[in-house]
Write a structure and sequence with these properties.
The complex is a heterodimer. The longest helix of chain A has 18 residues, at 356-373. Chain A has helices spanning 7-10, 20-33, 46-60, 112-125, 146-159, 190-200, 202-206, 228-231, 248-255, 276-281, 308-312, 356-373, 380-387, 389-396, 429-435; strands spanning 80-81, 99-102, 109-111, 129-132, 139-142, 175-176, 216-219, 234-240, 245-246, 289-292, 295-298, 317-318, 323-329, 343-349. In chain A, the strands form four sheets. Chain A has a five-stranded mixed β-sheet. In chain A, strands 1-2-5-4 form a four-stranded antiparallel β-sheet, with no helix packed on it. In chain A, strands 9-12 form a two-stranded antiparallel sheet. By secondary structure, chain A is α+β, with helices and mostly antiparallel strands. Chain A folds into three domains: 7-159, Alpha-Beta Plaits, CATH 3.30.70.2500; 175-240 and 324-419, Sulfite Reductase Hemoprotein, domain 1; 245-318, 2-Layer Sandwich (Alpha-Beta Plaits), CATH 3.30.70.20. In chain A, helix 2 packs antiparallel against helix 3 and helix 4 packs antiparallel against helix 5. Chain A contains 15 helices and 14 strands. By secondary structure, chain B is α+β, with helices and mostly antiparallel strands. In chain B, helix 4 (159-168) packs across helix 9 and helix 10 (338-345) packs across helix 11. The chains are: A alpha+beta, B alpha+beta. The interface between A and B is large, with 153 and 149 residues.
C-alpha cells in the first residue's frame, strides 16, 4: 500500500511512453522491501514522499519546493543545489532534498561497472533517483540530506575517481557531441577538447569568480547535435576549409536508387524516386553544385559547409581533410533581454593538442574582459551587446573580417576613435571663427 | 538507520581531501569497436527506426539500438539497463544529448535479440521501458527541465507534460514519415535551463501574474537593491510599508503594468513568488532549430500565447502540438524543418493550416528587435 494516494499521477502510468511514475513507484517499493539490506542514510520512504509532494503539485498547479538554500561541499562554490520542500511535516522524507551534479564523461559513454558503482553510492546515501542527464549534461543525483553531501563527495573522489560538476556563477560542466567516437561528420575530437578544457579550468568550474554562469559546448560539425550555437557562451563547431571529398561512383548509386538518401532517414513514407537535382543541388543554399558529364561538381570556394549534401549522401560526400572549428560567442536563453544566438568570432582555428591557441587567444582574453567589465549576472552575450562586438575583437586583438557579420550596419552612427580621425578632436574655435562669423 | 561514514572526518575537512579531478576520461568507457575505429568512420545508415549502423574504414561495423526514456530515472532502471548492456553489449552503454539510451553491438546477429529484449520490457503500469525509435525524420525524445519534481521557479511541470506529449506523438517516435526531424523541447520557466528557444516545437512554462509581496519578510530574506536591479523593465522600486500591526518595514512596490512575468525578481528574492494556479501555464513556440543545414539556426516563435496547466495530461497542449505536426507533415517538402516550412508558406498561412488563432499577444512589443518582426513589405497572402 502506497504511503500517499496519487490519483492524478496514476493517470500517467498508462500509454506507451516510459512512465516516470511507474519507475518511481517501483523504486519506492524496492526501497521499502530493501532485499539487499542497504544501510540507507536518508529516509527509506524518500521516494514515497517525492511522489506525494508531486501529486500535491499536480493538484495545486504550483511547485512545493522552496527557494534555494546555501549548501555545498567544503571549498567548492558549485556542484550542489540546496533544495527544501515547503510541506516538511507531511513529507518529511523530502524535507531536505538537495541536488548533486556529477560531471559526466565525454560522449556519455559508460561501462556498466561504473554505472553500478554510482547506483550503489546513490542508493545508500541518496534517494536513488537521478536525471540521466541534466540539461547541461551532468549526471544529476536528485535528493539527499545536508550531512550526506560531504560523504557522497568523499566517496566520489576517493572511490570513483569522480568529481562534481558546475553550478552558480562558475564555468558549467562542458558538454560535447558523440564526435569522432561514432560519427563520420566530426571535424575534430570533441571529447578530447572537452576533457582537456574541463580539466584545465577546474578552478573556474568549482569556485565562483565569474559575473554569472559560463558554458562551453562542443559540436563536431555544423549539424550541431548538442545545440552549442543556441546555448553556449563559447561554442566550438567543427568545420573544414578545403574540399568536400566526392566518391562519384557512390553519387551514381544514390542517383540509381541503390543507396537510400539521408542514411535512410525518410523510409517511413514513399517520397518517390531520389532526385539529386531537386533534393541536393536545388536545395544547396549557395547554388555551388552542378552535374557535368554525369559527375557531381562542387565549387568548394563558394560552399558554406551547411552539411545538407553530405547529410543526404553520406556515402558519396565526406567532410574535407583540413579540419578545425569555428568559435561562436554569446549564446543564451531569454533571461533577461531575450535569447541570443552565438555570434561568429573565430572563423577557423585548428584543434590540436595542447590547444594553447584556443586557450590563450580566445578563452582567456574573453574571460579577462568579461570578469573586468561584466556586471553581476550579466552573461557574455549581454556584455557583447552592451559594449559592442568591436570591443570584444579589440580585447582579443582580432582583425575584423566580413565573416563576422551577416550584413554591415544599417546606420552611420560609428563611434570613431580620436586617433582614427586626422588632427584629433582638439580644435581652435577662434581659428574656426576667422572664417565662420557668429 | 545508523550513520555510516565514508571516511570523511568533519573535524578535519582538508585531511586526504581530493578535489579538482574532473570527470572520468571518456575513453575508459568506449566499447572496443568504438575505441578501435574512432575518427575512422566512413558512413552510417538507419536500418529501421531506432537502429543505426556505422561502418568504419577498417570494415568494422557498429550497430546501435536507440531507445527512448524518461530522463528522470531510478537506480533500479539504470541497473536494468546495465543488465541488458552486460547481456548483449559487452558491458557498455551510452546516453544521447536528448535523453535517449543507446545500446551498441559489433555483430549484426546480435541486433534482433537485443531489439526483442528491449521491446519486451514493460513497467507494471503497462508503458514500455525501452521503446526503440527516435531516429531520422520523426520525433525524438524531448529534452526538458525539472518542473514540479525538483525546481522552485517552474510555471508548469516537466516530466508530466513530457510523458503526455510523447504518448500522443509516440507513433512518430517509431516511424520516420515526417519531412525532417522534429525536435520538441520543454522548459518549465523562462530561465530555460533546457534552452528550448531553438526547437521545432518548444513547450514553455510561463507565469501571468505579477509577484506577490511578502512584506513582513522581504527585507529579512532579500537584498532589496538586487531585487530592484533584477527587473528588466524597471517595474520594481523601494517602498516603505506599514504592516497590519502598525510596524513600518522596508520593502518594494511593483508597477504591475510593467511586469512581463519573467520571474527574475523571484530568482533574487524568495519573498516575491509568482506561482499561481490560474496564472501559470504553457506557451507554445515553433520553428526554431540549431542545425546550420540549408538555412541558419533559428529562434522559435510564439504561436500560442497561453494554455492552462491541465494536470495530469495537458490535453490542450498535446492536441495543439499534434495539430501542428500533422499540418507540417501534410504541407512541408522533404528535408524542410518546421520553421523553414512556415517561412516558405508564410506565417499567415501557418496559422491557417494549423488552425491556430492569431491574437495580439503574438505581435512582438519587447524592445528594438520587435520592429524587425513586423511586416515591412506589400507581399503577404490572404487567408480565409
Amino acid at each position: 500500500m502506497a504511503k500517499h494516494a496519487t490519483p492524478l499521477l496514476d493517470q500517467l502510468e498508462s500509454g506507451p511512453w516510459p512512465s516516470f511514475v511507474s519507475d518511481l513507484k517501483a523504486q519506492a517499493a524496492k526501497r521499502a522491501k530493501n532485499a539487499e539490506n542497504i544501510e540507507f542514510q536518508i529516509p527509506t520512504d524518500v521516494v514515497e514522499d517525492l511522489l506525494g509532494i508531486l501529486e500535491l503539485s499536480f493538484k495545486h498547479g504550483r511547485t512545493h519546493w522552496k527557494h534555494g538554500g546555501i549548501v555545498g561541499v567544503f571549498g567548492y562554490g558549485g556542484g550542489v543545489i540546496g533544495r527544501y520542500c515547503d510541506q516538511p511535516e507531511e513529507f518529511p522524507g523530502v524535507a531536505h532534498f538537495h541536488t548533486m551534479r556529477v560531471a559526466q564523461p565525454g560522449g556519455k559513454f559508460y561501462s556498466t561497472e561504473y554505472l553500478r558503482q554510482i547506483c550503489d553510492l546513490w542508493d545508500m546515501r541518496g534517494s536513488g533517483i537521478t536525471n540521466m542527464h541534466g540539461s547541461t549534461g551532468d549526471i544529476i543525483f536528485l535528493g539527499t540530506t545536508t550531512p550526506q553531501l560531504e560523504e557522497v563527495f568523499f566517496e566520489l573522489t576517493h572511490n570513483l575517481n569522480q568529481d562534481l560538476g558546475g553550478s552558480g556563477s562558475n564555468l558549467r560542466t562542458p558538454a560535447d557531441c558523440i564526435g569522432e567516437a561514432r560519427c563520420e561528420y566530426a571535424c575534430y575530437d570533441t571529447q578530447a577538447l572537452c576533457y582537456d578544457l574541463t580539466n584545465e579550468y577546474q578552478d573556474e568550474l568549482h569556485r565562483p569568480a565569474f559575473p554569472y554562469k559560463f558554458k562551453f559546448k562542443f559540436d563536431g560539425c555544423p549539424n550541431c547535435c548538442v545545440a552549442s550555437i543556441a546555448r553556449a557562451d563559447l561554442s566550438f563547431i567543427g568545420t573544414w576549409r578545403d574540399n568536400i571529398r566526392i566518391d562519384q561512383e557512390a553519387v551514381q548509386a544514390y542517383i540509381g536508387g541503390e543507396i537510400a538518401p539521408n542514411g535512410g532517414a525518410h523510409s517511413g513514407r514513399d517520397w518517390g524516386k531520389f532526385d539529386i537535382q531537386a533534393e541536393v543541388i536545388g536545395r544547396c543554399p549557395t547554388q555551388c553544385m552542378w552535374m557535368e558529364d554525369g559527375k557531381l561538381k562542387i565549387d568548394d570556394r563558394e560552399c558554406t559547409r551547411c552539411m545538407h549534401c553530405i547529410n543526404v549522401m553520406p556515402r558519396a560526400l565526406r567532410i574535407g581533410n583540413d579540419r578545425g572549428c569555428s568559435i561562436f560567442a554569446g549564446a543564451k536563453a531569454p533571461i533577461l533581454d531575450g535569447a541570443q544566438m552565438g555570434s561568429l568570432v573565430v572563423p577557423f582555428i585548428k584543434v590540436e593538442e595542447p590547444y594553447s591557441e584556443i586557450k590563450e587567444t580566445v578563452i582567456e582574453p574573453i574571460w579577462d574582459w568579461w570578469m573586468e567589465e561584466g556586471k553581476n549576472r550579466e552573461r557574455l552575450g549581454e556584455l557583447m551587446k552592451r559594449q559592442g562586438f568591436q570591443k570584444m575583437l579589440e580585447v582579443m586583438d582580432l582583425k575584423p573580417v566580413p565573416q563576422h557579420v551577416q550584413e554591415p550596419r544599417h546606420n552611420p552612427y560609428i563611434f570613431w576613435k580620436e586617433d582614427e580621425v586626422d588632427g584629433g578632436w582638439e580644435r581652435d574655435i577662434n581659428e574656426f571663427r576667422k572664417y565662420h562669423k557668429r | 538507520m545508523a550513520f555510516v561514514s565514508s571516511g570523511y572526518d568533519p573535524s578535519k575537512p582538508m585531511e586526504n581531501r581530493i578535489t579538482d579531478i574532473g570527470p572520468r576520461k571518456y575513453d575508459e568507457f568506449y566499447p572496443p569497436v568504438i575505441a578501435k575505429n574512432k575518427g575512422k568512420w566512413l558512413y552510417h545508415e538507419i536500418l529501421q527506426p531506432g537502429v543505426l549502423v556505422h561502418v568504419a574504414e577498417s570494415g568494422d561495423e557498429v550497430y546501435t539500438v536507440r531507445v527512448g526514456g524518461a530522463r528522470l530515472m531510478s537506480t533500479s532502471l539504470i541497473r536494468e539497463i546495465c543488465e541488458i548492456a552486460d547481456k548483449h553489449c559487452g558491458g557498455y552503454v551510452r546516453w544521447t544529448t536528448r535523453n535517449n539510451v543507446e545500446f551498441m553491438v559489433a555483430d549484426k546477429a546480435k541486433v534482433q535479440p537485443l531489439i526483442d529484449d528491449l521491446s519486451g520490457r514493460k513497467f507494471d503500469g503497462g508503458s514500455f521501458k525501452f521503446p526503440v525509435g527516435g531516429t531520422g525524420a520523426g520525433v525524438t525524445n524531448i529534452v526538458h527541465t525539472q518542473g514540479w519534481i525538483h525546481c522552485h521557479t517552474p510555471a508548469t511541470d516537466a516530466s508530466g507534460p513530457v510523458k503526455a506529449t510523447m504518448d500522443v506523438l509516440f507513433e512518430d517516435f517509431q516511424k520516420m514519415r515526417l519531412p525532417a526531424q522534429v525536435r520538441v523541447s520543454l522548459a518549465c520557466c523562462l530561465n530555460m535551463c533546457g534552452a528550448v528557444h531553438c526547437s521545432d516545437i518548444a513547450i514553455l512554462g510561463y507565469h501571468r501574474k505579477p509577484p506577490m509581496l511578502d512584506h513582513e519578510y522581504l527585507d529579512k530574506m532579500c537584498e532589496i537593491p538586487l531585487a530592484i536591479a533584477a527587473c528588466p523593465t524597471a517595474a520594481i522600486k523601494p517602498a516603505k510599508v506599514t504592516l497590519p500591526d502598525g510596524k513600518e518595514v522596508k520593502s518594494v512596490a511593483v508597477n504591475n503594468d510593467r511586469c512581463m512575468f519573467c520571474g527574475n525578481c523571484y530568482t533574487m528574492c524568495p519573498s516575491m513568488p509568482l506561482a499561481d494556479t490560474e496564472g501559470d501555464g504553457i506557451v507554445l513556440m515553433v520553428g526554431g532549430k540549431v542545425s546550420n543545414r540549408i538555412s541558419a539556426p533559428k529562434f522559435s516563435k510564439v504561436v500560442v500565447a497561453f494554455l492552462p496547466n491541465e494536470a495530469p495530461r495537458w490535453p490542450s497542449t498535446t492536441s495543439a502540438i499534434k495539430k501542428i505536426i500533422e499540418a507540417y507533415s501534410a504541407g512541408a517538402k522533404k528535408y524542410e524543418r518546421v520553421g523553414e516550412w512556415a517561412e516558405r508558406i508564410g506565417w499567415e498561412r501557418f496559422f491557417e493550416k494549423c488552425e491556430l488563432e492569431f491574437t495580439h499577444h503574438l505581435i512582438d512589443d519587447f524592445r528594438d528587435p520587435a520592429y524587425y518582426t513586423w511586416r515591412q513589405t506589400s507581399q503577404f497572402k490572404f487567408t480565409d
